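pasting for ref. prot 1 ->
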Amino acid sequence: SASEGQSNDNSYNVDVSSDGRFIAFDSWSTNLVSNDINNHRDVFLLDQQTGLIELVSSTSNGELAMGGGSHAPKLSHDGSKIVYISDASNLDPIRDNNLMYDVFLKDRASGETRLLNLNDTGTGTFSSTNFSLNLDISRDGLTIVYAGYRGQNTVTEIGKRLTGMTLDNTT
């Protein structure tokens, strides 16, 4: 942690890269990185080779997610992309206007945080009561699968939105 000691709160929802180098998790801890002052659960990535922990749930400009928590990270096989859910209000303040959990993708190479559950016009998020923790990312990081409550199950391919694809409509 940033304080060179143990974390000061619980961690959850662990995912590991294929080679075991990267571990993504969410945590209430406030001492894993400096200036973690949002009082919400955040998503982190531990590089086991270097021992460094980085904040994943941040804006494309590196600002801490504010106004809500971030949960349920899933890694691409090499740890370069991380998908997670968040109800933070500043990760995409222009298009994220539903005040609910949304699905985000962090690209570690570019630093970009990308809102995925956009409506058909790309101007806002589609209506949902919430997103479940059931999300995943393909090995190559190009396909993300997530399921909303009320049967709004969706597959998103980076660069191409596939609408109306049902994975499991039992909710």
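and prot 2 ->
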Amino acid sequence: LMLERPGIKTERLFQLLEDAGRSLRNLPVRELAHVAIELPITAHFPDEYIPPGRLKIEMYRRLSRVDALEVLDEFRDELRDRFGPIPDVVSNLFKLKQLQILARNWQIDDIHLEEDFAVLRYRSAPRIRELVKRSNNRLRVVDGRSAYLVLQKPLPSTESILRTLEALLRS
């Protein structure tokens, strides 16, 4: 049932399953921290693009293992070569994965919306202070775990929010 739910949470499921399998085989568990992203966006591999079954599961598994932007670009190119033009919902999946990779570099564990803000939950105060400087103070630290990025009013489109977050995390 979890596999049929659209969105980036599927990646977390595959990471947990892989970690459990590695633990059973006495192999070290991957050390990549998961970045939870909760945004109002539809992102998944539709059945019309990749048919249900083993192949689709493998594509989700491979996406969950991507840990660098260059590898993400290669995977996107491979999908385009194998399955044809990338639908919007798949493109959204790649945008979310890109945000995860960028956020991980800043030691951010969670990105979600609250009212007129994008909230970033972080682990490293020095890293978030550096990001605040680079944001021209658009990002505001509110406590030892959260920073708020002021969004335009009225709340911009999800696509605009994604672009804003990407620009911030690439700075």
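Residues 133 and 139 are 8 Å apart (CA to CA).
Residues 88-105 form the longest helix (18 residues).
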